[in-house]
């Protein structure tokens, strides 16, 4: 496990998502789960539809980094086929 610490804007999320996308493209992993604490820090979180039709808070920074690295259609294609899942950290407890 690797930890990245530093002030906002230093590239922590960008590096994490870039390495995850690289591992996915190299078929070293089957799926990426983008997550972060669902706590607003001066920005609106928004909502994504959940599998049960309920809304889930959207972790914005990792998702933006994914769109930075891939063209928007490519990022959406990965999300649609389940290769990339977006989930707030609170929903990750107990996940396999």
Question: What structural keywords apply?
Answer:
two-stranded parallel sheet; 4 strands; alpha+beta; 96 residues; two-stranded antiparallel sheet
Could you give the topology of this structure?
Blueprint: H1 12-25, E1 32-34, E2 47-49, E3 55-57, H2 60-69, H3 72-80, E4 84-86
Parallel strand pairs: 1-4
Antiparallel strand pairs: 2-3
Description:
The protein has 96 residues and is of the alpha+beta class. Helices cover 34% and strands 12% of the residues. It has helices at 12-25, 60-69, 72-80, and strands at residues 32-34, 47-49, 55-57, 84-86. A two-stranded parallel sheet has the order 1-4. A two-stranded antiparallel sheet has the order 2-3. The longest helix has 14 residues, at 12-25.
Distance between the termini: 16 Å
Taken as a percent bin, the fraction of beta residues is 5-15%
Question: What is the tally of beta strands?
Answer: 4
Uncertain stretches of 5 or more adjacent residues: none
Structural class: alpha+beta
Radius of gyration: 13 Å
The residue-averaged pLDDT reads 75
The helix count comes to 3
Query: What overall geometry do the principal axes of the alpha carbons give?
Result: globular
């Amino acid at each position: 496990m690797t930890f990245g610490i530093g002030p906002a804007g230093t590239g922590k999320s960008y590096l994490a998502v870039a390495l995850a996308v690289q591992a996915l493209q190299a078929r070293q992993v089957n799926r990426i789960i983008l997550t972060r604490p669902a706590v607003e820090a001066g920005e609106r979180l928004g909502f994504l539809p959940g599998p049960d039709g309920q809304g889930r808070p959207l972790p914005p920074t990792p998702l933006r980094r994914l769109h930075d690295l891939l063209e928007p259609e490519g990022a959406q294609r990965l999300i649609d086929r389940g290769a990339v899942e977006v989930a707030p950290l609170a929903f990750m407890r107990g996940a396999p």
